[in-house]
Design brief:
CATH architecture of the largest domain: 3-Layer(aba) Sandwich
CATH superfamily of the largest domain: Mur-like, catalytic domain
Shape: globular
Number of strands: 22
Strand order of the largest sheet: 9-10-8-11-12-13-14-15-16
């Protein structure tokens, strides 16, 4: 079945065809990966820091591409006689074609979400809610870490006629990254999960974080719904950005929020909380497999989206209870009689403190080993923020063992007061920490690992 006609590709790209004689034909597929089969396909040659699709044009032709989308300045790399369209930015063309494709699904509802922390938890709660209501086969959600400039159009191109709901996670670490992907998604509901100390190396301040993430709200139509925290840094910026939307729903621990969450406590296997809709008085209790006050708030954000769709709160709660997190996010395993909690996928100062607060609900500090690694993209305040995390950990767990892993964590340990360094060992890298950390673990211990993904902390956990 035709995907895009050459005319549609030309109109979307504003480019120039070369070696094309028939403008009335179509492509049946689109790919940015030359290794994958693309029968009668369009290959878009994307470029990044560590790759350049223009190096694989011949491979794309061998994989079935009948048209190549390449940068004008790289025409010398085009194999002789091969049909191509020359453009200023293949990435921009990819986004425009994904936008064109998204518009074909007239009855589709799109939910866009972003946040400094909690994005994936909220996304999976949304997936659980709408799968419960509509059936999992009718829900498309962002896969893996495909929440960027390339990933969002990639997910949009996965849409089929069976989908009723599309849930798109959107990440950013530089100014100007949310706006284009939010615009091509045309969300019906936009959710900002949180605003916190994340990517300050590039976004500079909390107001900078809020300003960048507010573009997900600005992409809403006048009929759209904005869902934002009741209180957060940069809250005024978020509310101003959502001012044109049909409604603004809020969530949080306050009874002033549209949807209030009351955390009831939890343990390593799960927790419970209550949701209160202050617009209609509905209440619902939730018991689920995630723990922590911060996770309950993430769920409340997802629940507020459900409210925007008119779903009864009791049904929303039933869906949330089915939430499961992927990969290295709060994964609990047992090794030689010790319990390991692996949350080594992502970290920032706010999520670090939230996780430590959660552990404080149930962990025995005399049998606790905290393995805390570097947090990325904090910028000039890196030493201060890592020191604050370690100090917070020591204050909550005075007797716990702490392994500080990575360059920033090691520097923070070095400047701590001697009395505060009790039971704290520093390691320059995850690989250097593997053997000494494992040697500390005894039967009955609880080991908690958390760091930014680039720290590679997961290698410390023993193999299954």
């Amino acid at each position: 079945m035709p995907l895009f006609s050459f005319g549609e590709i030309l109109n979307a790209s504003g480019g120039e065809f070369v070696n094309v004689s028939d403008f009335h034909i179509s492509v049946d597929s689109l790919s940015t990966d030359s290794r994958k089969p693309m029968k009668n396909g369009l290959f878009i040659a994307l470029s990044g820091e560590n790759f350049d699709g223009h190096d694989y044009l011949r491979q794309a032709i061998a994989s079935g591409a009948v048209l190549l989308c390449i940068e004008k300045g790289k025409i010398s790399l085009l194999p002789p006689g091969v049909p191509a369209i020359l453009v200023d930015s293949p990435l921009l063309v990819y986004q425009k074609l994904a936008h064109l494709y998204r518009r074909r699904f007239k009855d589709l509802k799109v939910i866009a979400l972003t946040g400094s922390s909690g994005k994936t938890s909220a996304k999976e709660a949304l997936r659980a809610i709408f799968s419960h209501v509509y059936g999992a086969e009718h829900v498309l959600a962002t896969e893996g870490n495909t929440n960027n400039q390339i990933g969002v159009p990639q997910n949009l191109m996965r849409l089929t006629d069976k989908h009723k709901i599309c849930i798109l996670e959107m990440g950013t670490n530089h100014f100007g990254e949310i706006e284009p992907i939010a615009r091509i998604a045309e969300p019906d509901v936009s959710l900002v999960v949180s605003i916190g100390s994340c990517h300050l190396e590039y976004l500079k301040t909390l107001d900078g974080v809020a300003t960048e993430k507010s573009h997900i709200l600005m992409a809403l139509s006048k009929d759209g719904t904005a869902v934002i925290p009741q209180t957060s840094p940069g809250n005024g910026i978020l509310r101003a950005a959502a001012g044109h939307a049909a409604q603004i729903l809020t969530f949080g621990y306050s009874d002033k929020a549209t949807l209030e969450v009351v955390y009831k406590g939890g343990n390593i296997r799960g927790s419970s909380f209550e949701l209160i809709n202050h617009e209609n008085g509905e209440r619902a209790a939730v018991e689920w497999g995630l723990s922590g006050r911060h996770q309950a708030c993430n769920a409340a954000g997802a629940a507020a989206v459900g409210i925007a769709f008119g779903i009864p709160l009791a049904q929303i709660a039933e869906g949330i209870a089915e939430t499961r997190l992927p990969g290295l996010r709060m994964r609990v395993t047992e090794h030689a009689g010790a319990t390991w909690i692996n949350d080594a996928y992502n970290a920032n100062p706010d999520s670090m403190r939230a996780s430590l607060e959660w552990l404080g609900e149930f962990a025995d500090e005399n049998h606790l080993l905290l393995v805390l690694g570097d947090m990325g993209e904090i910028g000039r305040t890196a030493l201060k923020e890592h020191l604050k995390v370690l100090s917070y950990a020591r204050r909550i767990f005075p007797e716990a063992e702490i392994a500080a892993v990575g360059r920033h964590m090691s520097k923070a340990v070095a400047v701590m007061e001697l009395v505060s360094r009790k039971n704290i060992a520093a390691y320059p890298s995850a690989s250097a920490a593997v053997e000494p950390v494992r040697a500390k673990v005894r039967k009955g211990d609880l080991v908690f690992l958390k760091a930014s993904r680039r720290t590679g902390l997961e290698i410390i956990e023993p193999a299954e």
